[in-house]
Amino acid sequence: MENLPIHIVINPDLFIKNPNSTSLGKRMVSEGIALIDACGFETFTFKKLGTAIGSNESSIYRYFENKHYFLLYLVNWYWSWVEYKLVFATGNITSPKDKLSKAITVLTKPVETDQDFSYIDEVVLHKVIVSESIKSFYTKDVDLENKKGFHEVYKRVVQRVSDLVAAVNPKFEFPTMLASTVIESSLQQQYFSEHLPGLTNTINDKDDMVTFYLQLVNKTVVE
């Protein structure tokens, strides 16, 4: 099985000082996730975060240039964690079809807390990703940030799934398009399920989301 370090590595250009290097930084990330989940990214400020962690607003600026970079940091952390889970879950599977099905399951099933990262609540972080991650790249600076590698981890996750699709059906013309569609639309469907249930059918059972995407991918690629 391919080995990935359990230590999450984030593009160093996203922060001034690595928050993972200090207890204050870890508390900053932990409380920041909870605060964005509670109030939304639009009204989230470093002043509010400073109050939440009992520190000056200026201390946060020693770690992050602005709140957009803070969101990018969280998004990168999340997809690095997902990449680790994908590699771990599929590493010992030999069947290309079973490997793809396992990857789709990992990407679309409900998120559970990972005890390996005590200061990160992955369940709450996932809620932030569902509601706010699109704002990390729907900006005027996306092309420049892409050149800086700020979206590299997410693109790696998409490419991993794309490679699994191609392994199942090398003749399928759109593996990357399918991979990114599954990942992005599953986040959207989870958002609909919680806030606009009339736009989705994935509200009856926690496995409905997994079932839908397994059927979608299998009928598109396998059958």
What does the secondary structure layout of this molecule look like, with pairings?
Blueprint lengths: L22 H17 L6 H8 L3 H5 L5 H24 L5 H13 L13 H11 L9 H6 L4 H17 L6 H21 L12 H15 L1
> How much of the polypeptide forms β-strand, as a percent range?
under 5%
The biggest sheet, with number of strands, parallel, antiparallel or mixed sense and barrel status, is: none
CATH architecture of the domain at 73-222: Orthogonal Bundle
Uncertain regions spanning at least 5 consecutive residues: none
CATH class of the domain at 73-222: Mainly Alpha
Structural class: mainly alpha
Question: What is the gyration radius calculated from CA atoms?
Answer: 18 Å
Question: Can you walk through the features of this model?
Answer:
Helix content is 61%, strand content 0%. It has a domain at 73-222: Orthogonal Bundle (Tetracycline Repressor, domain 2). The protein has 223 residues and is mostly helical. The chain has 10 helices and no strands. It has helices at 23-39, 46-53, 57-61, 67-90, 96-108, 122-132, 142-147, 152-168, 175-195, 208-222.
Question: Which descriptors would you attach to this protein?
Answer:
single chain; 223 residues; mainly alpha; Tetracycline Repressor, domain 2; globular
